[in-house]
Amino acid sequence: MESLEIHPRSNAPSANKAEWTVLTVKKLFEKPFMDLLYEAQNIHREHFKPNEIQLSTLVSIKTGGCPEDCAYCPQSVRFNTGVVDDDLMKLEDVVQAASIAKANGASRFCMGAAWRGPKDRDVAKVAEMVAAVKSLGLETCATLGLLKNGQAEILKNAGLDYYNHNIDTSSDHYEEIISTRSQDDRHVTLQRVRDAGVSVCCGGIIGMGESRDDRAEMIAQLANMNPYPQSVPINNLVKVQGTPMADVDGIDSIEFVRTIAAARISMPKAMVRLSAGRTDMSDEMQALCFYAGANSVFYGEKLLTTPNATSYGDDELFARLGLAPSDDVAL
Predict the structure, then answer these.
(1) Helix (H/G/I), strand (E/B), else coil: 109
(2) Where are the alpha helices (DSSP H) in 77-182?
(3) What are phi and psi of 15, to 5 degrees?
(4) Count of domains in the chain?
């Protein structure tokens, strides 16, 4: 990386009083670990109830067959991972899954589809799902890929609360992971989501062979959005056989916790979600992530096509930590 400075994109100026550069974020990473966590926890307590956590459930409403070449994704048609290309779920099946999620304590229901981007007829069908899930009293979230003009408004009118579209990694490292869509393409969709009045869920994946500078640049990108995302999922790479990322070296657990803390400090009012990869995390590592400012998790035994921590395991861990599920963790 030639420079440690990054400035907001023209369509995403800084929402913070002081702009976050890669250098300032990297200085967070370089702090003594205890000092970093102390700062992150203090900021967390200024904005959130410290012992409450928000539970979300993620369901794949359309699995497999994606034409993209995201090197981490088992749903790409370019990789032999054993994932079957399925049709879009039926409305009644989505409603049943959402009802079960609510009964198990989830307050947000996320619907993911393996598309490069939805066709208008797809958006119409997903809008019906959104309206039905919303009627159950759940917050709604969708991740459908790149959106065209007007599609975000249709989803908003149906009751969509959040749209997830991750930037994945730094701008420099991005081209080593994906070639079929640019990171700028992602920012265009994010702007369409903001313009429609839908809250943004946007984060990235850690452990894809990126450097600390890359992690700092990714956090700076997120923090300099206007506004920064209301929800920030930080994923620990799930290595799937058949993908180019299957044998990449994993990230040090302390470095992962540092990334959570940097996200909390630079985006103090965002929900920071400990997302994919929790099955590879010890209870102690997850506890450190919660202390560093993570206050949301995906709850359920599956994330799209990869395993997730079991509900029973989460309940046991939350009880040991004194964390209580809540749909309103903000102060």
Answers:
(1) strand
(2) 91-103, 120-134, 151-158, 171-174
(3) -95, -5
(4) 1
Q: What does pTM read for this prediction?
A: 0.88
Inside any domain, residue 1: no
By C-alpha distance, which of 11, 17, 51 is closest to 320?
Answer: 51
9 lies in some domain: no
Domain assignment of residue 16, yes or no: no
Query: Which helix (H) or strand (E) is 217 found in, with range?
Result: helix 212-223
More confident residue, 11 or 175: 175
Residues taking part in catalysis: 66, 70, 73, 110, 141, 201, 273
Q: How far apart are the first and last CA of the chain?
A: 39
2 within some domain: no
Find the CATH number of the domain harbouring 128: 3.20.20.70
**Structural domain boundaries enclosing 142:** 22-324
Residue 48 CA to residue 211 CA, distance in Å, equals: 30
95-128 tens-digit pLDDT: 999 999 898 888 899 999 988 899 999 999 999 9
151-155, 201-205, 257-261, 275-279: which range is least confident on average? 275-279
